[in-house]
Amino acid sequence: MALQQVIPQVFYDDIQIGLQFFVEGLGFKLVYNDDTLYIVKRDEISLILFIDPESAKGDRPQIRIQTDDIEAIYNEIKARSPKILHPNLSYIKNQPWGLREFAALDPTTVCIVFQQALP
Fold first, then answer.
1. For domain 9-117, is the CATH number 3.10.180.10?
2. 90: CB partners within 8 A, 6+ apart
3. Taking the model in full, what pTM does it have?
4. Confidence of residue 1 (pLDDT cuts 50, 70, 90)
5. Smallest Cα–Cα separation from 64: which of 16, 117, 24, 15?
6. What pairing do the DSSP bridges indicate for beta strands 99-105 and 93-94?
7. What ranges do the domains of the chain cover?
8. Is the pLDDT of residue 2 over 90?
């Protein structure tokens, strides 16, 4: 038996904000949707986006995604949608805890931190 993947759920009042951020901004593909549930996927990472205005009023998540080429993903996102780069971590930064990181932020303050271990 092994745990294989964490699949975060993110709640939105306006699902178009989530789709614009994840699909247009971060390069995920929409692989399923119905009236209230949307699944986006990129490589081995899946997220579930829900239309749920009441839950969307709560705390907004910060999700970390490990990558093996932080330079490539940073350059891709910066070229595709530089406005989504987090104002506090809009560049790749070597952190004292042994990671290289940058972040993206949607208009509802959902934060995605991309990370790669320092060599």
1. yes
2. 102, 103
3. 0.94
4. confident
5. 117
6. antiparallel
7. 9-117
8. no
